[in-house]
What we know:
The structure holds 2 protein chains of 2 kinds. Chain A is of the alpha/beta class. Chain A folds into 4 domains: 10-254, Pyruvate-ferredoxin oxidoreductase, PFOR, domain III (Pyruvate-ferredoxin Oxidoreductase, domain 3, 3-Layer(aba) Sandwich); 265-451, 3-Layer(aba) Sandwich (Rossmann fold), CATH 3.40.50; 458-536, no CATH class; 542-647, 3-Layer(aba) Sandwich (Rossmann fold). Helices cover 36% and strands 19% of the residues of chain A. Chain A is built from 21 helices and 25 strands. In chain A, the strands form 6 sheets. Chain A has a 7-stranded mixed beta sheet with strand order 11-10-12-13-15-14-23, sandwiched between helices. A 6-stranded mixed beta sheet of chain A has the order 3-4-2-5-6-7, sandwiched between helices. Chain A starts with 6 loop residues before the first helix and ends with a helix. Chain B folds into 2 domains: 1-211 and 302-332, Rossmann fold (3-Layer(aba) Sandwich), CATH 3.40.50.970; 214-292, no CATH class. Chain B contains 12 helices and 12 strands. Chain B is an alpha/beta fold. In chain B, the strands form 2 sheets. Chain B has an 8-stranded mixed beta sheet with strand order 2-1-3-4-6-5-11-7, with helices on both faces. Chain B has a 3-stranded antiparallel beta sheet with strand order 8-9-10. The model of chain B has no long low-confidence stretch (mean pLDDT 96). At the A-B interface, helix 2, strand 9, helix 10, helix 12 and helix 13 of A face strand 1, strand 2, helix 2, helix 4 and helix 11 of B. Iron/sulfur cluster binds next to loops of chain B.
Amino acid sequence: MTDSGGIGQYTLQTVAGSAQGKRGHVTDTTSATRRPESLERVVIRFAGDSGDGMQLVGDRFTDVSAAFGNDLATLPNYPAEIRAPAGTIAGVSSFQVHIADFDIVTPGDVPNLLVAMNPAALKANVADLPPGAAIIANTDAFEPRNLEKAGYHSNPLDDDTLSAFTVYPVPMTSITVEATRETGAKPRDAERSKNFFALGLITWMYTRPTEGIVEWIDERFAKNAMVRDANMAAFKAGYHFGETAEIFETPFEVHPATLPPGRYRNISGNVALAYGLIAAGQQSKLPILYASYPITPASDILHELSKHKNFGVRTMQAEDEIAAISVAIGGAFAGQLGVTATSGPGVDLKAEALGLALSLELPLVLVDVQRGGPSTGLPTKTEQADLLLAMYGRHGEAPLPIVAAYSPSHCFDAAFEGVRIALKYRTPVIVLTDGYLANGSEPWLFPNVDELPDISVPFTTEANHLNEDGSTEFWPYVRDETTLARPWAIPGTPGLMHRIGGIEKQDGTGNVNYDPANHELMVHLRAEKIAGIARDIPPVVVDDPTGDADVLVLGWGSTWGAIKAASRRVRAADRKVATANLVHLNPFPANLGEVFARYPKVLIPEMNLGQLSRLVRAEYLVDAKSLTKVSGLPFRAAEIEARILEMMNV
Amino acid sequence: MSDPVVLTKKDFSSDQEVRWCPGCGDYSVLTALQLLMPDLGVRPENQVFVSGIGCSSRFPYYMNTYGIHSIHGRAPAFATGVAVARPDLDVWVITGDGDGLSIGGNHLIHALRRNVNFTILLFNNQIYGLTKGQYSPTSEIGKVTKSSPFGSLDYPFNPLSVAIGAEATFVARTHDLDRKHMQEVFRRAHEHKGAAFVEIYQNCNVFNDGAFDHITSKDKRPDMLVQLHHGEPVVFGADNQYGVRLNEYGEAEVVNVAEVGTDALLVHDEARHDPTVAFALSRLAETPTSPTPMGVLRAVSRPTYEAEVQSQLGAAQANRGPGDLRALLESGGVWDVV
Ligand code: SF4
């Protein structure tokens, strides 16, 4: 079963096939005979004004689908402005969710169904729809003022703008106001529940269980009975509308996916990352000192961690990005697990302190939730353009390990691995995620806590240097022979007092030292220490079912899903392609050069202008081709598939 | 601290050669503190000195304690990390006028308002020494330096006013020519629970020699240093002939005691919660050329940041029990695939 299977067939045969018309095309099916029609997968996009609550609706739909057992992936997309002008294209917020009865890896290339709450939402999203897709439009919002704000000269629901699609016009606002009348809500307030009407309608359309949502509404709005009742009434009205209005042919169902056995939950990247840090704190037996400064899209990590103080997690909202990393380094010096997270602009600011941590050789984890750059760039959109910043963004020879997460749930593993390396090698580690992973979610077969490895490292408590006169002392820069890590001796330990700083240190003693030969030695030692981590990370695994593909598609970070989906499509057409994904970007896995040697053609899709491809070209002299995308949105599988086929000369 | 061994200055001195310019005021501050340390009752391994960048920031290298010589201006932030992680430690921040008030001004004010439990020693020599003589944020206006050949245009900071404005709970001043005074102020600062800010007038004999001579040279001290004593009227002069009172606007001004009478004088109350009077005192001398307050201007009590951090951790554990990772992973709805 492949990702490529559903879209065209589904949309054309099931929706458009029976409802070619636009407005109010009513079929003769009655509710009594309407049996759900099965789909393997569906991609739904909820779009509305940023004040319309589309993210909330998307989240709820995702949660019930996850609990129902579908595999899924999500793509929230919202403006950077908290309240962009209502009704405008700039103010459109959307949430795409892909649900399937098999394991999927992307939020879907194109939606099968668009829920458009107003003309701007339609205008902003219609270009993404394939012919035959379905649109549910809130007709109440298609009035002259809104149409004008969205740039429509006439009502697209009335002319033939949308002739390629099946349009279901539903007066959501007025039905919602009508349905909530008994709750006592004023019409103005009642209107705000229309997102729950849309949720109710889609819940019916895809035969989702309603209990989860009903319970959630009860709980979430417990403190405000009127709002609770209005949302509940709107939700039920939406559901019943689907059932009775008879403008929809049949509901659909997407059966639970057959996923590997085990216990699942739904999780977003930022929450997974926070849990990964907490798990790493537990498995290293170190309290976490997490300091950060609010920044989109990393703030949710701070929000999540600050809820879990009972794990001994100290969280601090610092006065700025520099202070945040400095606090974390101070915590590391004092014997805790220092962590900070930010996005690109914050990484720029933290560069000097990161260099200090590297020179002090203290464990530290810096998480960079990448967003569109440069400068303030696109705060709420995704990009992978900080790889070279992570790699080289410090003055001097300043190498440090880089670990990248490839899916929302993998953020847990990436955080855990980042901590493991930081502690073992006493080095700052950069963990890269991105806005798409941070806010996207998926079902997660979470690990059995008992099987998580112990990643604790001992503090040094004894002197480590024997003087000629037989006395002993503590030298902070004596290195472990295997890892080249220096001892971690924390304040409070008698006899091991030492002073360390950013000035070059003498090998061994750690004393201030400006000797040319010593600096040469120290620069090499620091580089060798990081390079040596290659011996301690898993080899890159190539997915090449027949073992003789010509093209290797190499990815890192969140392009993993689109690459995997693209390879499924290519293979479904009986063609061969190999794929691999890098979790460790510095150092690279030890077998990477040997992998390149096996493939005549290498393609590297990246959401930047070719940063990994530059690194591998420089390191391995391999003619890696770059496929780039910097639109603030993740790759679509089709884009990568097309390039693979092009490389095969098909 | 039940160690029977009596510690001495030697126990707090590292084996590193001290490398300030001969005659630099930093030497006397180092000696004063090393001599005082044994009396503070905290063993060297429980002391952490954190500094930024600048001449004075080499200080930690000379202390036989734990220490971080960090990056320019950020010492209060590193020290905050140490203090939050380990409230059991004694933490000192060593900074200067450029480090603490220019590049690191932000960290200084936030550390003060948070009331992190550490002692900040700000060596004020009104010049950039390490970079060889540019004007600093405390240099007087019109200062001629390599970077200001026609005189600096920047109006200077008054470090004590900055600290008081930043909600500091302990604010004091001392100078490098009076060891006993330094030690007394350091001791008070160390005893204080919370962020203690101490400005030290320190002579840079190479780039700004004699900056404080108007007030700190032996013969000038009686008439120029206004020693503050809690609970006592503010008087100074060889015969206590001068005093300080608040005028009708609440501003501090120097008066002749014989003219106004003792009852008109300001009685120093370092524990006043409201910082207005302390601020007025900090404004007494615009530059260190007229009578200048010395000693503790303000010492009030407020919960320390790290104590509050600890109490939130404690409350979370008391309410929810120690963290259970399995329960955390299973929170928010799970389902089984068989
Ligand atoms: S330059 Fe000035 S402050 Fe720096 S060590 Fe020399 S005398 Fe002291």
